[in-house]
Design a protein that fits this description.
Radius of gyration of chain B: 14 Å
Number of strands of chain A: 12
Helix content of chain B: under 10%
Helix content of chain A: under 10%
Order of helices and strands of chain A: EEEEEEEEEEEE
Structural class of chain A: mainly beta
Strand content of chain A: over 45%
Largest interface: A-B, 26 and 24 residues
Order of helices and strands of chain B: EEEEEEEEEEE
Shape of chain A: globular
Distance between the termini of chain A: 41 Å
Largest sheet of chain B: 7 strands, mixed
Number of strands of chain B: 11
Oligomer: heterodimer
């Protein structure tokens, strides 16, 4: 079946540091890929997405490129801020049997220190 | 964007009691909602797909008699954890997509409910 693997956290960075959170996936067919972010005390929010190979999703300075050859969708940001501290989830759309549910990675907690 | 509201955000209950969690779509009608569960340091795992006006579809290994799902209207789905036990303590979260959109569009999530059974 489908699966998503994320790097374990927490990831602790200083403000303005470069961020990479690795995400790889296993899927049948051609899934869409998503990054969701969960700030403390809030629900999950879509950060960015990519629907086909070589697409780059971007939002709020974050980027991720859909790499079919390496089955990866790594999240990057050039300069993190304290306000980026949150849990980040990589996910793919589950196309098996026509369902609309998402398959998630385990989440990576990012802590940015001033 | 669309908003999904989940209530309560936290609940503590005694072993053997039942707890109801509500999930509402505030500005769209959701024919389908999804219920996930998350254990500490683990992924969100799909428990069931809630279908308006019909029975929910449960994932393998999820006890339908323990986790009762009702989707009586296009804006409300409820998850009831019956006869809760400490091992049911977890983070439960619901989500929904705008109807008519494909699987390539975003899903909207509730805030989640932290259930602690003592």
């Amino acid at each position: 079946g489908n699966s998503v693997t994320q790097m374990e956290g927490p990831v602790t960075l200083s403000e303005e540091a470069f961020l990479t959170i690795n995400c790889t996936y296993t899927a049948t067919g051609y899934p869409s890929l998503f990054w969701y972010v969960q700030y403390p005390g809030e629900g999950l929010q879509l950060l960015l997405k990519a629907t086909k190979a070589d697409d780059k999703g971007s939002n709020k300075g974050f980027e991720a490129t859909y790499r079919k050859e390496t089955t990866s969708f790594h999240l990057e940001k050039g300069s993190v801020q304290v306000s980026d501290s949150a849990v980040y989830f990589c996910a793919l759309s589950d196309q098996s049997r026509g369902r609309r549910a998402l398959t998630f990675g385990s989440g990576t907690r990012l802590q940015v220190q001033p | 964007g669309a908003v999904v509201s989940q209530h309560p955000s936290r609940v503590i209950c005694k072993s053997g009691t039942s707890v109801k969690i509500e999930c509402r779509s505030l500005d769209f009608q959701a024919t389908t909602m999804f219920w996930y569960r998350q254990f500490p340091k683990q992924s969100l795992m799909l428990m069931a797909t809630s279908n308006e006006g019909s029975k929910a579809t449960y994932e393998q290994g999820v006890e339908k008699d323990k986790f009762l799902i009702n989707h009586a209207s296009l804006t409300l789905s409820t998850l009831t954890v019956t006869s809760a036990h400490p091992e049911d303590s977890s983070f439960y979260i619901c989500s929904a997509r705008d109807p008519g959109t494909g699987i390539r569009t975003e899903a909207f999530f509730g805030q989640g409910t932290r259930l602690t059974v003592v």
